Amino acid sequence: MAQVIGVGIIGMGWMGEVHARAYRAVPDRFADGGLQPRLVVCADAVEARARAARERFGYARFTTDWREVMADPEVAVVDVTAPNGMHLELVRAAARAGKHVNCEKPVGRDPAETRAARAAAREAGILTFVGYNYRWAPVVQYARRLVAEGRLGRLTHYHGRFLNGYAGDPNGFLSWRFEREHGLGTLGDLMSHVIDMAHLMAGPIASVTSDQEIFIRRRPIPRPGSGTHYDRGTAEDPAGDVTNEDYVSALVRFEGGAHGLLEACRIVNGAKCDMSFELHGTKGAVKWTMERMNELQLQWRRDDDPAQDGYTTLLSGPAHPYHGHFNPAWGLGLGYDDLKVIEAWEFLRSVAAGKQGEPGFAEADAVARVQQAILRSWESRRWETVERE
C-alpha cells in the first residue's frame, strides 16, 4: 500500500500551480515508488485564486489564511511558493508546527534570512528541500556523474549563466520581484540557480568579485492579486521605482582550483531561458542550456586523432537518470514541469525515508554565502572570500 503524505501549498500563482501538478504526477511517473501525495489544502491571499486552485487541482479545501495550513493535522509537508518576502516567516511557522518544508528559491529575501531559515529548520528537526529544479535534467545529472567519476580530468574553467528576458519589456509590471524590500533582484531570482548549478558541477566557490546594474529603473504599478511577472501595463499607467538589480556578473575561483564566470540578467533580449553552463577539464568538456534541455554537448580530448576533437551532441534517453520515468525512448524530451515532478519525488522520498535529501537548506545556505560575498564585492569593488560554514 502506498504511503500517503499530506501536502499544503502556500501561494497559488504560476509556481504554486506547477508544484500542484508535480505532486499529482508523482504516483504516475514514479509508480513503483510507493508514495501517494495528497493535496490537502491550498492557501492564497486572493480568494478567487485559492478557490480556483482547489477546483482545478483537487485539493480537499482552500483558505486565504496560510496559518490554517500550518495548523492542519492532515498536512505533513508545507510547500512554499509565496512571494520571497514571506519565505522566512512561513518556514519558521512550519518548523514550529513540525511540518517538513519544500521552499522555492531563494529561501530568504537575503542571505541572512536564508541562514535564519536553515537554523529554524535545523532546531526543529524538520526536513527541507529547495526548488533548484534545473539540476534535475537527465543530461545534467549525467554530466554531474562524469565529473564525479573524474572523466573530464582536473577542472580548469566554468562558465555559468542565466539570461532570461522576462523583464525586458519596460512596461512589464512592477511586481514584488523588482522591489528590494521583498528581496534581492536578479542575484536572488536567477543567479541563485547559477550558483547552485556551479556548486553541483564544479564544487564550492572560494572567492568572487562582482558587478551589478539596474537598466530599467521605473515600471507600471500592477493591481494587487492580478497577473504574473510576465504580464505588462502601459506607458500611461502610474509607475514606481525598481529598487533591485537587473544584471549581475561575477568572476569566481573554486576551491578545487578552477576559475570561472557567472552571469545573470532578467532584461536581456534574444535569450529566452538560457540557464546554462560550460565546464572544461583537462580531459574533456561539457556544455548545456535549458533552451535545449534534452541535449548535452560533450567533448573528449583526442590527441590520437585531432580531426575528431570536437563537441558531440547527446540526446536525453533512458540510459540517463530519471528519463525512463517519463518515456522509454531516446530523443523524446522532457520539459520544465517534468523537472518539478522529479523535484517533488525527491522531496517526498526524503520525507518517507526520514532522511535529509539534496538540495535542502544546507545547499541554499551555501548559495547564500556566495551571494553575501557578491554583495560585499559590490561595496568594496574587490575580490571577497566566501565564508565557510
From TrEMBL:
Gene3D superfamilies linked to this entry: Dihydrodipicolinate Reductase, domain 2, NAD(P)-binding Rossmann-like Domain
Domain of life: Bacteria
Keyword field: Oxidoreductase
Organism expressing this protein natively: Anaeromyxobacter oryzae
Organism classification: Bacteria, Pseudomonadati, Myxococcota, Myxococcia, Myxococcales
Protein biosynthesis found in the keyword field: no
Domain Gfo/Idh/MocA-like oxidoreductase N-terminal: 5-132
Membrane-crossing segments per the record: none
Keyword Cell division: no
Residue stretches making up the GFO/IDH/MocA-like oxidoreductase domain: 140-286
This protein's name: Oxidoreductase
